## 1
Amino acid sequence: MMNQSPTEVEKARGLHRFAVLTAGATFCLIFVGGLVTSTGSALAVPDWPLAFGKLIPAWQGGIRFEFGHRLAAGTVVVLTLVLMAWAWRAEPRRWVRKLVMLAFGLIIVQAVLGGITVLFELPLAIAVTHAATAQALFCLMVSIAIFTNPRWETRPHVDDPPSRIPLTTLAVATTAIIYMQILVGALMRHMSAGLVIPDFPLSFGYVIPPYWNEFIAVNFAHRCGAVVVTAMVLWTVVRVLRTHREVVALRRPALGLFILLVVQICLGAITIWSGRMVIPTTSHVAVGAGVLATSLTLTLRAYHILGAPNRAHAIESRASSRVIERQVTA
């Protein structure tokens, strides 16, 4: 990237900007999808891919949210297709081009899952898979936006202080746990178990619910997951601020992750206290995606900034060993 001509650099910036736009559109798609669930409009349009046998149905009631979701999904499909064609022509790194192709394939799978969800009237497994794929697609789009940034290849390498659990490992674990928490939340939403425990932060006035069924179990699991996510995020943020405060590329996503976590906890509480009002409930879904994407950003940057020198040193060591072996053999 450092040896590119000004024209090539400008092309790379254009691709990056479009990747950011596509990632932003994917985030909006998650918000609109959350609106469908929050308003109970998932089956407002009972057929697919048409809507009441038409391309454009009457915009009334829940149809506005469900058909709006389809329009948003179609927009993301088109943007991803353009991004794939653009990357194929302008992106020199083969692995990045393959990543964009994977994103396009994933959004097609996502669209098919959405259609199956409608045609089979919201089967729980498919509905949760649809939500899981949406989050995976968003993470993939964010990754592409990060990798296409012209500054990605020019970030300086930094040594990570020795520790029992490296920051890269900690960041991966935090991101994985956040993703699992989102899946539990999706399961809870599609089971309509969001208010089965009506109070917060207690559960029926107790720390642990005094009685159980499958709905209470899923709801309480989501609350316990929130505690685990909070602990992991705080651990990760504190580690970054203690050991790499001067590295802006790590400090900013770490602080952003902390702020989003606080907002997410508040939205979760408001969702319960308001009886699942549409805006806070949907915002809770969207901000959850933001927490996941920010944790992923921190993870990718940590691997790039902290892990690359170790890999380079390992490659150099292997090359030196081969040279020595050849000299000894000779």
## 2
Amino acid sequence: MSAPVLRAAPAAELTARRRKHGPLRWVILAVVCLLAVVTAAPFLLLVLNAFKSSADYSANGPLAWPTSFTLDAFTGYLSRVNFPVALTNSVVISVLVAFLGVAIGLLAAYAIGVGRVRGSTLIVSVLLLATMLPHEALIYPLFYGAQALGLLNTIWSVVIVFTVLQAAFATYLLSSVMSTVPRELLEAAALDGASRWQVLWRVVMPVLRPTLAVLVVFFFIWTWNEFYVPLVLLADPGSQTVPIALSTLRGQHSIDITVLNAGSLLSLIPTLAFFLIFQRTLSRGVTAGAIK
């Protein structure tokens, strides 16, 4: 007789908890839905106004539904801006910075976090300070340095600058993670005859793979959205990136909002596609970091 009572008690208790927390769950769900709408509102307005005509926008405003969907804004943007060149420059710069920054940061962090370099705390502090400095404070030495090296108005000036900056951040982050790797694991690999490179690629690298994937995604997006340093170092239209190409749409006294929205939407698509492609990798990296 006791067995049915023991089985029914947890079910009744679960039902009571659901009734107790039922209204609270609906409130939380409503708040989350409201936040999702507020977050998506700018993107929806961007899409809405990108398919309007200039006359429609001037007559009805940005919040009105288009009287007719048109591609005039996209045609106007592509006629004013050499978008394929700007897109190619942005993709090349962002991809190179993302992977080179992570690779250099991994090697430097391996020497600091696992190799136990003398003065590692000071080195990490300097790297952290470098990531905290505003770009405006570095623009003069960067400009004259690129000019002296003959890299001004070439994408390599921006690639070098942001690779160094992103590698400094990657070194700071990865060295902290590597310092928590058990010494016994590294010593066991060394006793098995593994060299330092084999320890890095076969022992440390698999542990850090989720974190490295997250850094690649973040570095790509951060570099893609950079504006100030490329604006100064890339004055030549043939080397400009997508954000700089968008800034050229602003006139001295007027601006075509629909064309600007169309250009912003086109510039957003590559980063959105990159994020969606690596979404699972990003979520796994965040989950792995939370579990550890």
## 3
Amino acid sequence: MTTPPYASTPAVSFTSGGERLAGVLHLPAGDGPHPVVVLLHGFPGNERNFDLAQALRRAGYAALVFHYRGSWGTGGDYSWGHVLEDAAAVVAAVREEAFAATHRLDPLRVAVAGHSLGGFAALMTAAADPAVRATVSVAGFDVGTAAQLCTDPVVRAECVAALGSDLLPLRGTSGESLVREMTAAGPAWRLAGLAPAFEGRPVLLIGTGRDPVTPHEIHHVPLVRAYEQRPHILLEHTLFPTDHALSDHRLELASTVTAFLARHLAPPAR
């Protein structure tokens, strides 16, 4: 009698932009193939949602956490554009035949979930990749909306200072260069504009009601309203009375995300 595979936590790596990205894959026990959730951390990545990865594994999902270029010791330079490129590359890589077979993953059941900047990257990545089956944004940072606010010189200076104060785990960037990049992208990075790409697809938006980093009035409520205008988006949304890291709502976060995925990542028909 063959013993089914045990749960494991292998280190994995991916290539994006010529750099090697380090990741940790949380694999459940059993033969699988398991649905997989790619977790995208925020800026600069102090909260990496490993508790969410563990909760997803307990619920039967494989969960991947990785670092972008130029962050936390990874080679290359950090930028918003590189975050988007790296997220897209990793989401594609977990579906590759050899990687999926090695780790008992189901390439037809891939979801993307992100926190803060990771929420922005999750929505941008999924909008450009129809093979992503479900998308979750938690306290998502709407870079395009922030860019619009930065047309005010006072707000721009505040944004440069705020981003510049959080650069210790990052390399090759500055508050000024990050603000310049977001304002150059402008409306192309406004999350409301992605709504047509999510027609017929499930999206979960989680806002945070006591959050000065991504105030829900600016980053959550307008996005919910924009997506509600598209009745064919399978939209779910909630607003937790908590801070940006969901410090006192981690269990609620895990249960909300796993319940959402259970509704939308059912095994494909045989």
